[in-house]
Amino acid sequence: MSSVNNTIQLITREQALPVGVPGRAQESCDDDLAQGPWEFDLAEALAGIPGYGPGASNEDIAPAATPQQGQLPQEYKDASDAELESRILAAKAELGERVVVLGHFYQRDEVVQFADFVGDSFQLANAAKNRKEAEAIVFCGVHFMAETADMLSGSHQSVILPNLAAGCSMADMADLPSVEACWAELEALYGTEPDADGRVPVIPVTYMNSSAALKAFCGEHGGIVCTSSNASTVLEWAYERGQRVLFFPDQHLGRNTAKAMGIALEHMPLWNPRMPLGGNSEQVMQDAKVVLWQGFCSVHKRFTVAQIEQARVDFPGVRVVVHPECPMEVVDAADEAGSTDYILKAIQGAPDGTTFAIGTEINMVNRLAAQYPQHTIFCLDPVICPCSTMYRIHPGYLAWVLEGLVAGVVHNQITVPEATAVNARIALERMLAALPKITEPKTTEPKTAASA
Ligand code: 13P
Ligand code: SF4
Q1: Is residue 262 exposed (0-12), middle (13-18) or buried (19+ Cβ within 10 Å)?
Q2: Fewest CB atoms less than 10 Å from the CB: which of 287, 289, 352, 434?
Q3: 143 neighbors 67 (Cβ within 8 angstroms)
Q4: Which is the closest atom of ligand 2 to the Cα of 209?
């Protein structure tokens, strides 16, 4: 398997590297990535503090309440890849329809190979809602995705996150008390009365990458959840009902989406939750069309305009496609921006022999490169630096939770309290109804080094 993990193993052992794209260096951002994720569960337990583990989001500060994973039984740590594979397949065969394994595009290949359905967060939310026959949904993704699956699945189903430490550093950048404090300031400033067209002063929109509590906040306050695939449909929905939007936690998705809708940058103040009025003047806030929470994704923050310029020099005619969690300058310099599913469809729809530089998580990019050998596909960032929270899921944990189910034990169940879920579901059902726009593959010529 030409997986990211195998490549990292080869790099750290300084062995011969697999042939990659000519001229692209192969180095990893953190040698600790070569270890099993359980090494970090142990380090956290000993230190008494949770962390995100090695990889791109390792530098972010994990909140004290971040869930910690208990120790994985030794037999799963010691098992070889081949042993884990046969144990997972045996457990899945025994469980049959009783279990469904869902996998996000950013999961390692060693996990994705066992998924019954692989997709982006919007597709996985739908998959969780529509697999009512399964008693257990094993979610190979991150915590907010498993919470969403729990809220959308039936009460007879249990949702399992194989490693509880698989959170999301961006989701952790907005918490309920800070959003409630922001909301109180906005209500004091704007009031609560609708305008002549019946539009309320502000609509809360949370990105899917947020806690269930924030989704419930949106449900309770006339708001909605979005994903990167339906963000523009969701903003249109919000502007039909409100004069402004409070968008959290990802400033970049909010800014990129609003800009594409024609909203000027001066009407998009950034909200710093540690400052009065988010660090803005009253006039700026009055003129706001979208108030952007100061969150970001550390994986997508790694992509730069300089990397795009280099790719255009190295590969004239390269098509640069990036995720909208990237900073605005990067999205502007790219040829296209879209969700993980958009990136997949762009590659599937391209004529043979297209060269793609992709700005999203490395596991997905390398898998696409292997699946579509008719194209040249590489990651814009030459350093291999996976999402450290997605990295926490490993076949060892998957084998542990599946064999637990065979033995009648549910490990790592994610349960959202009903008092939260009831409001969050309102915002999630609005999200599911706000369908992503079908975007046709680009037909224009890619930008050149000179035109970019
Ligand atoms: P998608 O909604 O495109 O799956 O992205 C989820 C995510 O976490 C991106 O960082
Ligand atoms: Fe969160 Fe970024 Fe990882 Fe997505 S890639 S799960 S936003 S840290």
Answers
A1: exposed
A2: 352
A3: yes
A4: 7
